[in-house]
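Example 3.2
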Amino acid sequence: MPTSRFQGVTAPDRVIDDPAPIDVSWTVINQGTGAGITSSWTDRVVLSQDDTYGNGDDIVVGEFRHNGGIEAGASYIRSERFLLPPATTGRYKLFVVSDAKSEVFENGAEGNNIGRLAHGVDVMTVAYADLQVASVTTTGTAASGRPLHVSWDVVNNGIGLTNTAEWSDQVWLSRNPDGSNVVAQLGTASHIGQLAVGDRYTRSIDVTLPEGIEGNFYINVRTGGPFEFIFTNNNVGSTVSIPVELSKSPDLKVETITLPTTAQEGAVIDVSWSVVNQGEARATGIWVDIVQLIAVNGGGVVTLGSFTYDRGLDSGIRYTRTEQVRLPSKIEGLYRIRVITNANLGGGGAQVYEYGDARNNNALMSADTAQISLNDRPDLRIGTITVPDHVTSGTSTSIRYTVVNQGPTAASGRWTDKVYLSLDGNLSGDDVLVGQFSNGAALAPTESYSTEGTAINIPIRYRGDAYLIVVADGNNNIDEYPSEGNNVKAAHFYVDPVPFSDLVTSDIVAPAQAVHGASIEVRYKVANLGSNTTRGEAAAVNSWTDTIWLARDKRRPGAYKGDILLGSVTHTGNLAVGEDYLGTANVSIPDNVMSGNYFITVWSDTYNAILEDTLAANTNPDDPSDSDNNNFKARASRCWASRRPI
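Structure, written as tokens:
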């Protein structure tokens, strides 16, 4: 009964190639009591990224078959070379497992079948560099918002030349010595050229520390880019603690604002203001002053202009500037001016840094107000409107109206008056434009002109109360603000109705029973029981369409409720009062109709080509609440089909 034990595993501690070859030797000794009955087994070589054999990170790099038993106390030595997969890189632990597939009976003594190389094996494609920031120093006084010169050295402490010839070093400011709690990114510097083992380079940049900081800070430099094997966590270097002083700050403040006491809307006015630097430091650079208009009684803010200042301002010094700004049109009432200096502070655009409370006093509202008045404008209104008291539907009428300018200034130029036909006297989207008329002349204050409209057609369907609505300057060509809403006036008249026909469908003749797919004959009668000869919107209309339906009930037929259109017949020729015609149609019952009780329904003038009044005496009792309910009539009919009944 054999038991295996490793006496030694040897392999190099570093391999540099791609793909990387590894020479491994191991000795296996039989510490059991005999050779056993198994003379062949497998030795396995494994690389692992940790100290544990048999978990998920193991890589089997070779299996080697041993043939021939060994006596108790005997041993064998095996040496093998194998290639790792291309681009393999890492630091590994190497294990050799004898009888890896458990082919040899060892009576439970398999625990010593695993041998481990005493040292790790570093595998890499090329010799690595190890870039380290050797030192970071600063020159100058560290103060917020002020320049500082930063220098650093980078050394290659690896075993090989850098495999790239260009990389960048990153510089940042932090509150913690390990580079965390980043305050600001300060810049980068590029290195060009490969770096040999033991060689170094020096780089430096001029940075500006952030405004408003004070206390102890650290400047950090991170290098890297070339291949460094596993040595990528030592690429950062930092300064010692740097005490940063808080620099003195300017403090810009608007002191005074001057504006006119009265102004007209849309006018150009002069606004003056003064700005003082009451801080301890000079304000340098460029900043922007904004002038705003604000109504005393509330409302939106209107920016009248922004003005750049680029001359700097010493502590205790002020500047005064006067600028022309244009007021918005169509405003009136009391307004104030607000001026904000250094208006982009804290946002985007040109600005000067101000520290702490100095940031909160950059705006001033004027104590004085300006009374802004509206400019004089015309005010067009409709004066008198003359229309007939009664108009017969289907005829035409005329209109006469006057337009007067009740504003304090002349209305000049061209504009168009519009006339609408309305059923309710309120101008809305359902009204019909029936006339457009150019203004007769420009109008001085209190002047007027009259317009005599051409014939306005009254639709034949109109009846009862109606209105003609006149809109002066219907396209709003004339600026009448704030009196744009008084240009409309309506005139009432009454439309005397014209009597219509009333088509009545009756006397439906159709089979009481029908079979699906069969053709049937349908006969019916249509009479004009109304008050006038049939006609359409146009008097020349003298034809209409009758349709035949297979319906589920006696009501007006429609596909929406499952009724089926079987056919149609066109009738041509007007019907005088009391006249009628007999219609005949041959239609087919569809193949897919289910057995059951139906109605054959004839619907005269299906598409409403003819003008009709549904007289009470002619109401269809089958659907009395429906409008125009006597144009259709139903007759019961049972349909038979091969499908189950409904």
